[in-house]
Specification:
mainly alpha
C-alpha cells in the first residue's frame, strides 16, 4: 500500500495528493499519515511546495467528505426509522424514538463533532455520514470540515517537510496515536452500549 501511494504521488504530484486524500476520506483504511507526511517530504526535493500540497490535500478531504455526506443524506433518518421498526430494531432493542433522540443530539453537537472528529482516525471520515443523515446544513458542514481538515493536513505536511528523509518516523508516531485513539474509541463504544442497554432495561422494568 505504502509503495503504491508513494509511486502515485511521485508520478502525479499535486493531483496525486488530491486523489489519494479524496479516496482516503471515502475508504478510511488508506493511511492519510503516509500521504501527507510523504507529500511534505516531496517538497524538499521536487517542485512541489508546502502551501499547495496543503491546499490540494484539503480539497481532496472536502471532496471525499461531500461524497459520504450525500451517502448519509440517502440513508436518511426516515429510512433508518423504517429499518428500526422491523426485525433489526427488535434484535438491537432499538425504537424509532432512539433515532429521533440521536438525531436531536447531533443537531445540537454536530458542528463540534464534525470539527473534532477530523483529528480521529477512521472516525474523521465516517463522521460525514451522520452529518448527512441529520441533514446538517451543507454550508456549516463544509466550514467545519475545511477548518478541521486544514489543521490536520497542515500539521502532517509541515512535519514531513521539516524531517525530510525521516518522514517515516512521523508516520510511526501517528500510527501509535491512531492505535491508542482506536482502542479508546472501542472502549467508549462498549461503555456506551452497556450504558444504553442498562438505561433501556431500567425503563422497561419501571
Amino acid at each position: 500500500m505504502e509503495e503504491i501511494i508513494i509511486n502515485l504521488m511521485n508520478q502525479f504530484g499535486y493531483i496525486g495528493v488530491f486523489l489519494l486524500i479524496a479516496i482516503e476520506n471515502i475508504f478510511p483504511p488508506i493511511p492519510s499519515e503516509v500521504i501527507l507526511t510523504f507529500g511534505g517530504y516531496m517538497t524538499t526535493y521536487s517542485n512541489l511546495n508546502v502551501p499547495l500540497v496543503i491546499l490540494f490535500s484539503t480539497l481532496g478531504s472536502l471532496v471525499g467528505a461531500i461524497v459520504l455526506y450525500y451517502i448519509g443524506k440517502i440513508l436518511n433518518k426516515e429510512r433508518l426509522k423504517k429499518i428500526v421498526s422491523g426485525k433489526i430494531g427488535k434484535i438491537l432493542c432499538l425504537k424509532q424514538d432512539d433515532i429521533d433522540k440521536a438525531d436531536a443530539w447531533f443537531d445540537k453537537k454536530g458542528e463540534k463533532c464534525v470539527f473534532f472528529c477530523r483529528f480521529v482516525p477512521i472516525v474523521r471520515s465516517l463522521i460525514s455520514i451522520p452529518a448527512g443523515m441529520s441533514e446538517m446544513r451543507l454550508s456549516k458542514f463544509l466550514i467545519y470540515t475545511t477548518i478541521g481538515s486544514l489543521i490536520w493536513n497542515s500539521v502532517l505536511v509541515i512535519l514531513g517537510s521539516i524531517v525530510g528523509e525521516n518522514w517515516e518516523s512521523i508516520v510511526n508516531v501517528f500510527d501509535t496515536y491512531s492505535n491508542i485513539a482506536l482502542i479508546l474509541l472501542i472502549i467508549l463504544f462498549i461503555g456506551f452500549v452497556i450504558w444504553f442497554y442498562k438505561k433501556k432495561t431500567k425503563k422497561q422494568q419501571a
